[in-house]
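Worked Example 4.2. Consider the chain below.
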Amino acid sequence: MNANILSVFVFFMISMSHHAFSQSDSTKLDLSGSWRLTSSTPRGEKTVELTIIHSGSEIIAESANESFPITLQGLNVDWVRELSTPMGKKKANYQGVIDEGQMKGSFSIIGGMMAGRSMNWHAKRIEK
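Applying the procedure from the previous section yields the following structure tokens:
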């Protein structure tokens, strides 16, 4: 019986340490600051400077023309922003990861002829 209790205790401790580690990844990150976001499109690279405000669990990105929320789970980021395209304004879904102080991933246009086509993006912090 003591071996069973010990096994349950060890399993519980391992589970809790893994949970604490995965929770600490996103809670210790602070994305606040100025970022340069570059999106690769069929018409070349498009760059915009963003100011990210990270306060508690709320993350907002702002540029000269827009403002949008960012979702952070662990080291994964996700947001939707509006892009100017030759076919007019289109929304794009960005998904990516934080890697060594930078972000990178892919995005796709929501709706229209380009719907579902995956393109790459990366962002680098300009200043904190």
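The two ends are 55 Å apart (CA to CA). Helices lie at 2-27. Compare this with Example 4.1 before moving on.
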